Recover the amino acids of this structure.
């Protein structure tokens, strides 16, 4: 089974239309062009589908880069 | 395609493929609609169109429209009524009459400005105003619904005629509110729609993009058996096929005929593409009490036993239009796959196995023929093409049919004297008309006798390909009256499996088996009303004509003249 972070990386690459290799631990809206407010909505939709979780507004405020998104999803899955 | 993620993945794959056409699409919106980009890109890509999609500024439809060069661009406007002001859907009933009037006038002014600014767009798609997602639980008409109706009336009067109006209620109905509307997303980020809505919507408007790129279909080619009527004319007979609009069984097929005629009225060319005896179909068109499609509706009838791709290619040459403007409707997996393989630019539509589904899906036929500007000339097309047809007489050979057959993974299983198949073998002798060399009809007891007898052999075969199993579909009964002679009593095959050279493979195997027991094989063709297509079958496989009578031809073949050709090796053969 692919690891959570591999799945997140794959989804981010798909949503933002960048090569997989461009998604680093610290990738954030600052270095990914398509990661704007709309990009965030699309990313959350795809992540919610894939992991069958639901993000609240306060979650979203904390999901500022790849690393933080991973932590948030792991929290949700453990809960 | 069940989720947004699936769509993203499918789209990523399609992005690599080079597209034939390009469109520039600008989306103007007063609601968050951005995920639609992927959906539109995907449905365009499937039709060979690279869509470059941009969005205007959020909730700035009028302002954006003013500043644009819209020439040569396609514009899509998502104007969500409920979001005309924040929370209109729950505020509207509490507004004073004058406030509501002021709001309505403002929207109308904005609409007018937008129409004017976008007047030179090459395509302008807008949605009908609707209140459905916000009022569907309410018994009596709400103010939002009334406002939607008034605005739609205003658009009917004021909008330029070239605007293509989309009724988005259709997208909601198709998958239900739950799958189409995202209330949570709406409250959080004005994201009102979700996956099913985007999917339905992009399907619904795709014909406009095709039309914009000149990919308009012109001709509808219809199979006959199980497409225009229920049943197989050559097997069941004209009395037993169903297309009577007053019966449950017949109605979906009557509907297909009426829908085809309606398309013909709008200028779509109609043709038949059927493997049948031409005289049978002609007679049915003229005399059957329930047939609606008549000779006068049809540009051409390709009713014969040739490959359908070959027939359509020939027709395209004759009337001088490309096969890429053909739509082909058929119930057979085999025929559809053959068409996709031989003429991939023909749009092939499968008749669903379930007749009710068929009845429903016919709604979408007309989508293939949508034009941006319909003219009165269209309706005259049939006559013009008829004339073309008389002038030209082109012929075209097929080259890659063999390779298509090779790709099918055909597998033939021969059953020799298999007692478990007695009833099926009897049934085949009773029902098969077209590929049947002598047409004797046998009861089960008689077949049982042949299976048991030492001086007879019953060879039945079943056929499979990668699309499925056709079941037991061929039979040959041989008698050995003495030690030197074999007599072919019966040779028949269901027309379902013809057109794949299966008959030749079967005969070759059979003859090599029979010649193990006999020195000479005798056979005959006995003419019936329906078996003209096999009149020269024995000649084709190397039998010698002994005697030719009016309705009967006698043949024979000697062991030393038989040689297995070992062609047709793409059909794998085994014994049960």
């Amino acid at each position: 089974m692919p690891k959570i972070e591999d799945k997140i990386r794959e989804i981010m690459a798909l949503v933002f239309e960048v090569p997989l290799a461009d998604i680093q631990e610290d990738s954030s809206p600052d270095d990914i062009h398509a990661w704007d407010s709309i990009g965030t909505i699309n990313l959350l939709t795809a992540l919610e589908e894939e992991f069958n979780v639901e993000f609240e507004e306060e979650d979203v405020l904390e999901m500022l880069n790849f690393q933080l998104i991973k932590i948030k999803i792991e929290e949700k899955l453990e809960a | 395609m069940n989720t947004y993620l699936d769509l993203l993945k499918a789209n990523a794959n399609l992005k690599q493929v080079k597209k034939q056409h390009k469109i520039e699409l600008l989306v103007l919106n007063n609601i968050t609609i951005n995920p639609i980009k992927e959906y539109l890109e995907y449905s365009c890509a499937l039709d060979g169109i690279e869509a470059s999609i941009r969005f205007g500024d959020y909730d700035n439809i009028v302002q954006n429209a003013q500043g644009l060069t819209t020439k040569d661009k396609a514009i899509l406007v998502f104007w969500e009524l409920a979001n005309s002001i924040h929370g209109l859907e729950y505020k509207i009933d509490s507004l004073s009459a004058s406030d509501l009037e002021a709001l309505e006038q403002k929207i109308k002014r904005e609409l007018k400005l937008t129409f004017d600014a976008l007047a030179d767009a090459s395509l302008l798609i807008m949605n009908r105003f609707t209140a459905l997602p916000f009022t569907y639980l309410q018994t009596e008409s709400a103010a939002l619904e009334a406002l939607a109706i008034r605005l739609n009336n205003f658009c009917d009067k004021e909008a330029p005629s070239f605007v293509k109006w989309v009724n988005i209620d259709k997208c909601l109905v198709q998958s239900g509110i739950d799958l189409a509307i995202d209330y949570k997303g709406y409250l959080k980020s004005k994201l009102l729609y979700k996956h099913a809505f985007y999917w339905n919507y992009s399907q619904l408007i795709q014909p406009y993009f095709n039309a914009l790129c000149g990919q308009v279909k012109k001709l509808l080619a219809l199979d006959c058996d199980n497409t225009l009527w229920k049943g197989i004319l050559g097997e069941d007979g004209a009395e037993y096929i169903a297309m009577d609009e007053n019966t449950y069984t017949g109605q979906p097929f009557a509907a297909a005929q009426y829908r085809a005629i309606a398309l013909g009225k709008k200028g779509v060319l109609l043709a038949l593409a059927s493997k049948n005896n031409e005289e049978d179909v002609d007679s049915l068109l003229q005399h059957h009490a329930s047939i609606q499609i008549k000779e006068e509706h049809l540009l051409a009838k390709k009713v014969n036993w040739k490959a359908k791709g070959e027939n359509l290619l020939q027709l395209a040459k004759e009337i001088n239009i490309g096969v890429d403007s053909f739509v082909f409707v058929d119930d057979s997996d085999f025929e559809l796959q053959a068409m996709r393989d031989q003429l991939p630019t023909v749009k092939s539509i499968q008749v669903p196995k379930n007749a009710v589904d068929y009845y429903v899906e016919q709604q979408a036929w007309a989508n293939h023929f949508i034009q941006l500007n319909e003219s009165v000339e269209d309706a005259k097309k049939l006559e013009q093409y008829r004339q073309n047809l008389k002038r030209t007489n082109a012929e075209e050979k097929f080259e890659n049919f063999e390779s298509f057959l090779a790709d099918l993974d055909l597998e033939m299983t021969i059953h020799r004297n298999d007692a478990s198949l007695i009833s099926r073998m009897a049934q085949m002798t009773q029902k098969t008309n077209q590929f049947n060399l002598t047409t004797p009809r046998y009861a089960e007891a008689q077949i049982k006798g042949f299976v048991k007898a030492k001086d007879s052999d019953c060879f039945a075969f079943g056929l499979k390909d990668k699309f499925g199993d056709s079941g037991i579909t061929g039979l040959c009964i041989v008698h050995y009256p003495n030690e030197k002679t074999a007599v072919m009593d019966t040779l028949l095959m269901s027309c379902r499996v013809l057109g794949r050279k299966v008959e030749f493979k079967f005969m070759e195997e059979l003859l090599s088996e029979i010649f193990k027991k006999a020195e000479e094989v005798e056979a005959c063709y006995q003419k019936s009303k329906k078996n003209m297509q096999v009149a020269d079958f024995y000649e084709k496989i190397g039998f010698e004509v002994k005697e030719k009578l009016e309705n009967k031809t006698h043949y024979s073949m000697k062991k030393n003249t038989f040689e297995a050709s070992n062609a047709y090796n793409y059909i794998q053969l085994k014994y049960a």
Summary: The radius of gyration of chain B is 31 Å. The interface with chain A takes residues 3-5, 8-9, 12, 32, 34-35, 55, 185, 188-189, 191, 194 of chain B (CB under 8 Å). Chain B has three domains: 4-212, 219-404, 408-575.
